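Quick one, probably user error.
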């Protein structure tokens, strides 16, 4: 659920911070849409941990993208990218691991 809202925020933050006229906006639109779609699919398929791993990879990309795509000069976009990247990464990682742990059946006989 956290990644779902993170994807929405990332998608719309290109307009909010005025980046809709350049290539950085495409990064935000594509990654935001992927986060949103993967999160929706993950909510409908709880056993599909691969989707959580994809969201965690997108979280890492979102975190490092200000330096890779060279938009670290835009404070709003950079902070948005850093916070969404960190939060999505942590939430997706926790979701992938909690699902694995909930299916781990060890008997205590």
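Nope, works fine. Designed sequence:
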């Amino acid at each position: 659920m956290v990644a779902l809202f993170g994807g929405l925020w990332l998608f719309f933050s290109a307009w909010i911070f005025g980046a809709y006229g350049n290539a950085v906006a495409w990064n935000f639109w594509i990654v935001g849409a992927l986060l949103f779609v993967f999160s929706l699919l993950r909510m409908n398929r709880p056993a599909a941990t691969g989707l959580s791993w994809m969201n965690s990879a997108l979280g890492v990309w979102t975190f490092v993208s200000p330096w890779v795509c060279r938009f670290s000069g835009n404070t709003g976009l950079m902070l948005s990218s850093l916070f969404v990247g960190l939060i999505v990464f942590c939430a997706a990682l926790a979701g992938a691991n909690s699902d694995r742990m909930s299916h781990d059946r060890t008997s205590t006989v």
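Residues 2-102 form one domain.
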